[in-house]
Every structure is written in structure tokens, then in C-alpha cells.
TrEMBL record:
One of its GO terms (molecular function) is acetyltransferase activity. Transmembrane segments: none annotated. Pfam families: Acetyltransf_2. This is Uncharacterized protein. Belongs to the arylamine N-acetyltransferase family. It comes from the Eukaryota.
């Protein structure tokens, strides 16, 4: 991939430092005033660390689409910063989660832009309305700040590019993945029972054939490799994310968030974890046990409509079935860190996503989801 040009972050240094404080970024020199500490350098180590901290601090969360007065997911840089960083009210879905991290990475000096793509195989009507059903981040490490890159010796060689995606939800990418289809370029998913890789593909029909396209694939417990989504190397504009988000929020059944509130919360696991105890690691313990931030394994809690599950590796169990909207709002707050007050229950009343609405997933979608084993994911 060609070099990414430097770009200015939407956030100020003060906002960047507040974000680093909220995600509990560990500076090399503890004990010093964080406001005067040098900002983290734009290295691969920093990228991996921030990916982990962002993933475990902010929940994947689509509830704003149901609980707000206007039933929208506000994904502007200022709104997501206020909600997620300043007010600590919860998270967002792919557009909000990845936009926040993208702008923070740019503020630290990373060369990065937001990309877009769609699920494969085609599953939801949103994919017929936009080429950007999902947002990803493509990142390059500035050459003069890293000793980790193998490409610093020759200006003629293309720089390494990393795929970052903290906004997929269920079984998505949880750590940076080198943009390469080399057979050895495979990373683990939440645990070692899941693997992720990339494959080059031809440009889909009707798209720009001059740009390279990629397929993100996953494999579970020695099964076959399955496609999750495809994306191109072309940058996308925030207006394209906004348009896609507007479609999701206003077109009936355009995506699963129309009829189901989805939330996902990741937590790091101790190396000696088991399903029943799965002791969680603090950020300090993670830094000590995984100094490279490459092999951390995660469990997750998932809310899908009225069902809450806990998943560790191949094991998953229902931990709670929700009967009332009040119970769901309570679970979102206590288990996922998503806070709603005021008119939330009133706002969702009468909508397809309300608990007890009786909404039936359209047959063509139900059949596709059943075939693909789709659960709580983007």
C-alpha cells in the first residue's frame, strides 16, 4: 500500500491527554504528572497498547438508536468524545468506536485514515444502500519513529500498513493485523481458539478497480476459513460514515440494530483462566504479563436483544434473560458501562427493538443469519 499522508486530528492535545487518562494509558515513568508527560510515540507498541485499552474501556453499544429522543447514533467527533470520554456514558458501534480511536492515533502522529467496506456474504439491506456498511482503520508507523519496521532501509519499498478495527463487536479483530496475505500473517482472535487473517481479492463488481481490495477472514477451532467483511485501500470521508449511519437508523430492518439492542464488553483474561472463574487482569497486570500487547486473550459479555451471554473461547453461556426494559437498562449500566436516564424506556416503547415487541426477523434475514451463525456482531 502507498504511504499515507499526515493529517490533522479533530482533537486537541488536551482532549488527547484526557482520553489517555480515561483508558488508563501507562506512561514509562510512573508517578509524574500526566499533563506534563511526553505523549506516547507513534510506534507499533503504542498502537497495540491503545488498541487493547480502547477495546476494554469502551463497550460496543447500539442502544442510542433506541433510547434517545431522535433515535439516532450520533457519530460526530465531538459527540462521541463527550459521550465516551468526558461523560463516560458508554460506547458506540463501528463508526463511533473507530472514529474516536482514529482521531486519537492521528493526534499522536500515526499516519492513518478511515476505510470502509461491507460484510461478505451480503447479509443486510444496508449493503444495498451504501458501500460503507462497516468502518475500519488503516495505520502506518512513521519511518523516523520506529525500529520495529523492516521497511526503513529503502525508500522504494512500501511501508507496513496495519488493519485496526475496535468496532466490529462479537467475533471481530481485537489486535492490529498486518495488511498482508502472507500465509504466516495470522493473529489470534479473542482467544487462541479463533484465528484471523487477510486475503487479497479482486475489486467487487461496480467498485473502483484501481484500488486493492481485501477480505478479512476468521477461523474457529480448526474449521474452515470464513469471510467476515471486505474493504478497500481507499480512504473514506466522515460524510460517508454519517450517511451509512443515517441509513441504519432510519431504514426499517436495514441492519440488525433496527430490531435488537446489541452491546459487547471485552475483558482481558489471566493465562490460567478457566470458564467459571476467568480472573480478569488489571491494566497493570496486562502490562507486566504481556509487555508486547500481542498475545492478550479476552472474554466478553454480549447483550443481544433480551439475552446476556458470557463467552470465553469456545464456551458460551446465558447469564441472564431480560423480561423488562428496566432490567435491560440496569444490565447495560452494571455489566457494560452504558448509562441511560430520563426518557429511555419511553423512547423505545412501541419500537421493534423493545423487549416484548413481538417483532419477527424477516424470513430472508433469519435464514441467512441461521446459515452464518450470526450472533451479536456488526
Amino acid at each position: 500500500m502507498k504511504p499515507i499522508s499526515p493529517s490533522t486530528s479533530a482533537y486537541s492535545e488536551a482532549q488527547l491527554r484526557q482520553y489517555l487518562s480515561v483508558v488508563e494509558y501507562r506512561y514509562e515513568e510512573d508517578g509524574l504528572d500526566a499533563s506534563t508527560q511526553p505523549l506516547p510515540p507513534p510506534t507499533l507498541q503504542t498502537l497495540r497498547q491503545l488498541n487493547h485499552l480502547h477495546l476494554t474501556t469502551f463497550p460496543f453499544d447500539s442502544s442510542a438508536m433506541q433510547y434517545t429522543d431522535d433515535h439516532t447514533m450520533n457519530i460526530t467527533t465531538e459527540s462521541i468524545y463527550q459521550r465516551m470520554v468526558v461523560n463516560r456514558l458508554g460506547g458506540s458501534y463501528c463508526f463511533g468506536m473507530n472514529t474516536l480511536l482514529l482521531e486519537m492515533l492521528k493526534g499522536l502522529g500515526f499516519l492513518a485514515f478511515g476505510g470502509g467496506g461491507n460484510f461478505e456474504p451480503r447479509l443486510y439491506p444496508i449493503q444495498d444502500l451504501t458501500d460503507c456498511g462497516h468502518m475500519v482503520i488503516l495505520v502506518q508507523i512513521p519511518v523516523d519513529t520506529t525500529l520495529e519496521s523492516k521497511n526503513t532501509s529503502s525508500e522504494s519499498e512500501e511501508p507496513e500498513t496495519w488493519l485496526v478495527d475496535v468496532g466490529y463487536g462479537g467475533t471481530g479483530l481485537v489486535r492490529p493485523l498486518l495488511l498482508s496475505d502472507d500465509e504466516k500473517n495470522v493473529v489470534i482472535g479473542s482467544t487462541s481458539t479463533e484465528l484471523h487473517r487477510l486475503r487479497r481479492i479482486d475489486a467487487p463488481k461496480g467498485t473502483d478497480a484501481s484500488t486493492q481490495w481485501w477480505r478479512f477472514e476468521k477461523q474457529h477451532s480448526q474449521s474452515t476459513w470464513d469471510s467476515t467483511y471486505i474493504f478497500s485501500e481507499s480512504p473514506f470521508h466522515p460524510s460517508q460514515y454519517q450517511q451509512a449511519s443515517d441509513f441504519i437508523c432510519t431504514v426499517p430492518s436495514a441492519a440488525r440494530f433496527w430490531w435488537s439492542i446489541v452491546a459487547v464488553k471485552y475483558f482481558p483474561l489471566s493465562p490460567d483462566q478457566d470458564f467459571d472463574s476467568n480472573p480478569r487482569l488489571s491494566n497493570e497486570e496486562v502490562a507486566l504479563q504481556h509487555p508486547g500487547y500481542e498475545d492478550i486473550q479476552y472474554g466478553r459479555y454480549t447483550l443481544n436483544g433480551d439475552v446476556v451471554k458470557k463467552t470465553v473461547g469456545t464456551q458460551s453461556e446465558v447469564v441472564r434473560l431480560l423480561v423488562t426494559e428496566g432490567e435491560r437498562i440496569e444490565v447495560l449500566r452494571e455489566m457494560f458501562g452504558v448509562v441511560w436516564q430520563g426518557r429511555a424506556e419511553e423512547n423505545v416503547r412501541g419500537r421493534d427493538a423493545a423487549i416484548g415487541s413481538g417483532f419477527v426477523v424477516p424470513l430472508f434475514l433469519w435464514q441467512k443469519e441461521a446459515e452464518l451463525g450470526v450472533s451479536a456482531q456488526k
